[in-house]
Amino acid sequence: MRNVIKIFAGTIFIISLSTAPAVAETVLTYGEPGPNRGSRAAATRWFAEQVEKRSSGDLKINIMWGGALFKSNAARQSVAAGVVDMGTIIPDYFLKEMVAFSLTNLPFENLDPWVGLKANFEHMRSPAVSQHLAKQNLVFVTSYMLSNVIMLCQGDPVRTVADIKDKQIRGIGTFGKVFSDFGANLVSMSIYEAYQGLDNGLIDCSLGYMNASLALKQHEVTNSLTKLNWGTYTGLGIFINQDALARLSPSQQAVLNEVGADFIDYHGQNVMQSDLVAEQKFSQGIDGRKLEIISLSPADSKMLYTASQRHIKKWQQEAEDSGFDGKGMIENYKNALTKFSQERDIQGYPWQR
User: Fold this and answer.
1) What CA–CA distance (Å, rounded) separates 140 from 129?
2) pLDDT at residue 173 tops 60
3) Burial (CB count <10 Å: 0-12, 13-18, 19+), residue 107
4) How far is CA 287 from CA 31, 155, 220, 269, 294, in A?
5) Whole-number Å distance between alpha carbons of 85 and 244
6) Angle, nearest 10°, between helix axes 113-124 and 326-347?
7) pLDDT band at 21 (very low <50, low <70, confident <90, very high)
8) What's the pLDDT at 19?
9) Strands 86-89 and 205-209, how do they pair?
């Protein structure tokens, strides 16, 4: 009888184990306005894969591509309100609320994607910026980089700064404003709409980025590409809703922080390689269609940098009006650019060490 009871008890124990509910993993929803192709998309997928791998499946990220949940101009509100847990935010759509982030989208004299990413990451993790974001229910996770700013044109190409005058151009933040100073007619349009604008003649040219232009197939509706040699566009990134972050376990939060830091090196290398591939494809031709690749002269690029100084001063005033030490932030960011440029020169890139 005792053996029967033991067998019965063992059976109950086995059944209870087999029917006990499994501990479900945490899945974070992620809103991405861009398509699932190109350098940035590859980096976003890498981020999600690494989070799942390093958490042993305990934390997963479900990416919604192509603006399925919100467009670029609604990203900040959507992440802050919890429409999604995480998302890509481009600060130039929210100049007042994210003035601190837009610092790194100003035309400073740096053309190295990795250096820009490292300096941006350091800036965004500073206490002043973190506290400002917390008031909006946002937490910065890591930085994206769209690389050096270029210009694609249909029709007459831009060979010099003088060629900018009277052209209908889709601008980007301060870069677009400087073009306006040189006589361009700016057209308000997202980079995802630029293909149609170039195709139907609404715009003559679009400011953009080498690898992103390939991903968006803008070579199909243009015939020239001008390398402006004029700063990088670094200020966009991955943010998480503050409440969603608070719901994660300490180990899950640690994984997000770890992957966010490692993302900088991965994405820096990825952007540099993708830019080279894109330029080669544009110059060699895709489906028989080649782009003329033009590079502004050092004198013309210097003109653009000089014209940028007024806008950097304007940003400083706007930052100070929002309660930041604008001058100090600019100096700290310049120092970070110098620091990471020196690290690269002495030690090489992290993936080469």
Assistant:
1) 9
2) yes
3) buried
4) 32, 20, 9, 27, 21
5) 6
6) 140
7) very low
8) 40
9) unpaired
Half-sphere exposure of 246 (CA within 13 A, CB side): 7
Element (H, E) at 238: strand 236-241
Interatomic CA distance for residues 18 and 181, integer angstroms: 70
Report how far residue 187's alpha carbon sits from residue 151's, in angstroms, rounded to the nearest whole number. 14
Per-residue pLDDT reduced to its tens digit, 36-53:
987 788 889 999 999 999
d(CA 49, CA 17): 30
Mean pLDDT, the chain, rounded, equals: 90
Average pLDDT estimate for 119-135: 95
As a whole number of angstroms, the distance between CA 195 and CA 218 comes to 6
The per-residue pLDDT for 24 is 62
pLDDT, position 41: 86
Q: What percent of the chain has pLDDT over 90?
A: 74
Handedness of CA 36, 25, 78, 244 (dihedral sign): negative
The helix or strand, by DSSP H or E, that contains position 84, with its residue range, turns out to be none
Q: What is the pTM of this model?
A: 0.86
Nearest Cα neighbor of 27 from 186, 292, 250, 248 is 248
Which of 235, 108, 217 shows the shortest CA–CA distance to 152? 217
Nearest of 80, 129, 131 to residue 241 by alpha carbon: 80
**DSSP designation for 205:** E
Angle, helices 326-347/298-321, rounded to nearest 10 degrees: 140
3-state helix, strand, coil in the chain (%, to 5): 55, 15, 30
